[in-house]
Amino acid sequence: MKRWSLHLRLFAAGAVAVVAALALAAGGLSQLFNAHVERRAVAELSVELDQVVAGLDRGPSTAPGTPDITLAQPPADPRFSRPLSGLYWQIDLPGRTLRSRSLWDSALTLPTPPEDGSAHTHVIAGPGDQKLLVLERQVTLPARLGGIAARVAVAMDEAELKAADRAFVADMAPYLALLGGVLIVAGWAQVAVGLRPLQTVGARVAAVRAGRSARLGAEFPTEVRPLAAEVDALIEAREEDIRRARARAADLAHGLKTPLQALYGEAGRLREAGQEEEAQAVEGIADAMHRHVDRELARARIAARGFAASCAVGPVIERVVSVIRRTPEGARLDWSTDAPESCAVRLDPDDLTEALGALIENAARHAEGTVRISARAAADETVTLAIRDDGPGIPPERIEGLMARGARLDTSAPGSGLGLSIASEIAEAAGGRLVLAPLARGLEARLVLPQAPGAESV
Question: Could you tell me which residue ranges the Histidine kinase domain spans (predicted)?
Answer without folding.
Answer: 251-453
